[in-house]
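As the work plan foresaw, the team has encoded backbone shapes as discrete tokens. One protein thus recorded appears below exactly as we store it.

:::
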Amino acid sequence: MYNIDYKAMGRRIREKRNEVKITQEKLAEMIDISPSHIGEIERGTSVCSLEVLVNIATALDLNLDTLVKGINSQNVGQAFSEILETLSGDNKELYIKLCENIAGTLK
């Protein structure tokens, strides 16, 4: 059975929200909950409903599995693909080459 680490999940939400430059207030408005509830979710002190979690993932354009579990062996390919999709053509090639070089170094 999988135990959800709510503090880690909250950190991932906060990191992504900050990355896309959205305030807690704006995110709360986007998904129709209170800003204080967003704060509690980000601190891991409140367990949100599945509906709220899906709405957060959708608003922040996050993969739900990655949001809940973080990056792990089952979803690492999806995580790399999502990063790749955000890059322009030349940067995609650079990203792939960098990953290949790092992987070669780690072997």
In short: The chain has two domains: 1-70, 71-107. The domain at 1-70 is CATH 1.10.260.40 (434 Repressor (Amino-terminal Domain)).
